Amino acid sequence: MNYINVILPIPLQKLFTYKITEAEATFLKPGMRVAVEFGKSKIFTALVYEVHKTAPIGYEAKEIHQILDETPIVNEIQLKHWDWIASYYMCSLGEVFRAALPSAFLLESETEIQLVTGFSKENELSDDEFLIFEALQHQSQISIFKIIEILGKKSVFPIIKELIEKNVIVVKEQIYEQYKPKLVKYIRLTDKWNSNDKLAELLNLLNRAKKQRALILSFFQLQSAKKPIKVSKLQDTSNCSIAVIKSLVDKGIFEYYYIQKDRINFNGKSSEIKELTSYQETAYSEIKDTFKTKQVTLLKGVTSSGKTEIYVKLIKELLKEGKQVLYLLPEIALTAQLIERLQYYFGEYLSVFHSKYSMNERVEVWNNVLANKQKAQLILGARSSLFLPFSNIGLIIVDEEHEPSFKQYDPAPRYHARDAAIVLAKEYNAKVLVGSATPSIETYFNAQQGKYGLVELNRRFGDVLLPEIELVDIKEKHRKKRMKGHFSDRLIEMITDALNEKEQVILFQNRRGFAPVVECETCCVSPQCPQCDVSLTFHSFRNELRCHYCGYKQAMPHNCRACGSEKLNTKGFGTEQIELELQQLFPDSNIGRMDLDTTRGKYGYQKIIGQFEAQEIDILVGTQMLSKGLDFANVSLVGILNADNMLNFPDFRSHERSYQLMVQVAGRAGRAQKRGKVAIQTFNPYHQILQQVSTNSYEEMFKEQLDERWQYHYPPFYRIIKIILRHKDFNRVEEGANWLGKSLVSIFKEHVLGPTTPGISKIRNYYIRHIIIKIPQKQSLGVTKNNIIRVKNSFQAIKEFRSIKFNIDVDNY
Q: What Rg value do the Cα atoms of the chain yield, rounded?
């Protein structure tokens, strides 16, 4: 008897065994999808992990329903990488499977289907199809599980697929059968008329139909180019209606045909890459040298030093060798600007993969990478592009490697894209280049220790000086009444000077909305989110209060709900408020805003970045998405409106993150010829981090932070595993956290912190508790994880604690 072990897209820590026939065993390979029944009634898409002959112990294996693929859609190196992610980040293979594949590849029995309005060709349906059609007449939507009951058979996926192809039903969720290739409609002469000597006879035949005759002449003109002719192109050229074309199709003179096209194509010019400066050339040679002995190299180049041009030269070399290259970016906003630059050099090799692309577009990129097509040799994407089915990757570039966006927090797997990329590259014997002006403490520490290669680039492109940074003491300005709203007189003066010079300004405030708190002046009560432990943020554009954690919103009240007073005041400020103040201070300037609210659409980023590049926007206000590697030639001034918010965050990385964020934002200024200026508004200009930012002293910040990390047992000297407990019952989660804390202390002694209540102790009605375990360098990581899993299993065996959500986050920073 033959069996397969499969991965199911569910958070259970094991593989599942199913029975297959001899013929299926010869056909199936690891990485192919099969539809299987799980539990009493549910049907899932599963992925074949291995084919074998060992029967499961303790239960009778079920048979599979059907095979969904002809060839594997996931390769063996990918599966090996998934194993590492599941093991290292302490999650199940099923969770990795769900995160890795586009949702179009996952089909479940709970998937709902709906009827397409206006379908009337019932006589074309088979008996089974008609039964489903009839059921949908009485119910607006039904699940696949319900269809199994209606038809009395389990293998219903082919029937559903047939109904989708006939355009009878649509699937409510995004699933495999919903992926439709983009078909472009073309036209050609039928075999009977498809020759030049038939032209005279054809024109003679259509002598009385002037429009049809003119259309035929237009068609032969287009045909001389010897390219397929689109129906739309023929219609435009001949200036005829579609009815004329249809009448020629009905006469058997023309016929339609379709060609499958990818939804996104980049038309590159394959231009010659720019000449590198002598400093860039030196850095490039050093990178090549370090790659001879090290798998990972850190390129530490100051902002605007031209790191991208070095990447471009490396990419060109790898593409010549026929290798694939993965270019990882932390922010979708960055891909928008970088696409244009890379398209210019590698258009025909470039594909982009991130969550703002539609499900169909992502499936196409997946299939192109799987088939190793030319147009998918260079992949530009956010962290999820790490899971694509590469076959011969040669280089992974992790740009702005210090960015927190590379870390996945929810749902599992809670992986870090930079670390997972290094492991993936090892599987392919490929190289990794991590680049940043402000590397993370861990990466720079690894480079200093000789684990990674280190190449430094300390000159800006074109020898432009680093921006001049000025700290503005707003405590003093408030005392002397020199503030207008949230702007000091010095910042207003600098903005005015830049605008007079026809230059652009970027203003950074790391909070969206109008104000984070609305407070009653009489009783000091502020509206709270009913589901989370946070005050609601006021958004003036829609005149509503919003929770940035769960999405809850309500209209802005006219009076206080506690005391009835109409005196409501706002505390703090966000990007919306800054935008309104700027409109009053600089009425003749165009103000733009770039935050999560203004970039929701697929092309939201491109639109704002395009307007700013075209100098249609004079002042751009934004959150931290502005800080990440964007390149604008005409920006001469950057203003940071409140540096203290970041510095006073209760986190061991807050000083490092503040330094990185401020240096990165400052680096957007003066990137062309003229030296830029940066104004940082703060209540504490003598803070050590602000002083280090103003002098661009990365080494000083690094040494200071490293000393603190050593003293207080934090990375890179200790590893951290965070356990997050969540439950809707406050007492239950409190009791569970205390029990778990005591159990962990008995094993790990003083290396356990907690249980603690986080700053935001309730989100979406779930109360939260944290426990942190620190792991010294000499302590075995594997043994530590096994002990945690053993305690977790004991915890979940206790009836009262079984319902508590238990999440493990390895390297949670």
A: 31
Q: Are residues 308 and 433 in the same domain?
A: yes
> Are 596 and 565 members of one domain?
no
Do residues 166 and 115 lie in contact, with contact meaning Cβ atoms separated by under 8 Å?
Answer: no
* The pLDDT of residue 772 is above 70: yes
Is the domain of 606 the same as that of 687?
Answer: yes
- Short-list 421, 419, 374, CA closest to 396: 421
270 located within any domain: no
Name, in order, each residue with C-beta under 8 angstroms of 226's C-beta and a sequence gap of 6 or more: none
Q: Are 331 and 380 in contact (CB under 8 A)?
A: no
pLDDT for residue 263 is more than 70? no
The answer to whether residue 785 is domain-embedded is yes
Domains identified in the chain, total number? 7
Assess whether pLDDT exceeds 90 at residue 207: no
Q: Could you tell me the CATH number of the domain that includes residue 500?
A: 3.40.50.300
Rounded to two decimals, the pTM is 0.78
The boundaries of the domain holding residue 546 are: 515-572
154 CB burial (10 A radius; 0-12, 13-18, 19+)? middle
Residue 416 and residue 528 share a domain:
no
> Which residue in the block uniquely carries the two structure tokens 């779930």?
766
The average confidence (pLDDT) of the chain is 85
What mean pLDDT comes out for the span 612-627? 83
DSSP sequence for 526-586? --B-SSSSSBPEEETTTTEEE-TTT--EEEPPSS-TTT----EEEES--HHHHHHHHHHH-
Rounded alpha-carbon distances, angstroms, from residue 569 to 482, 514, 523, 553 = 22, 12, 11, 18
Q: What are the helix and strand counts (H, E) for the chain?
A: 26, 37
Tens digit of each residue's pLDDT (9 = 90 or more) over 289-336: 999 999 999 999 888 778 888 999 999 999 999 899 999 988 776 666
Question: Pairing relation of β-strands 229-230 and 182-189?
Answer: antiparallel
179 in any annotated domain: no
Q: Amino acid letter at 734?
A: E
What's the confidence (pLDDT) of residue 175?
35
Say what the pLDDT of residue 182 is.
59
- Residue 23 belongs to domain with CATH number: 3.40.1440.60
At 691, is the pLDDT very low, low, confident or very high (cuts 50, 70, 90)?
very high
Q: Please indicate, yes or no, whether residues 522 and 622 belong to a single structural domain of this protein.
A: no
Q: Within this chain, do residues 313 and 421 fall inside the same structural domain, yes or no?
A: yes
Percent of the chain with pLDDT over 70: 93
Q: Is residue 269 part of a domain?
A: no
Q: DSSP characters for 712-746?
A: HT-TTTEEEEEEEEEES-HHHHHHHHHHHHHHHHH
How many Cα neighbours within 13 Å face the side chain of 58?
2
- How many angstroms separate the CA atoms of 411 and 95, rounded? 8
Do 337 and 451 belong together in one domain? yes
pLDDT tens digits, one per residue of 406-419:
999 888 899 999 99
Claim to verify: residue 330 and residue 471 sit in the same structural domain? no
Please say if the pLDDT value at position 176 is more than 70. no
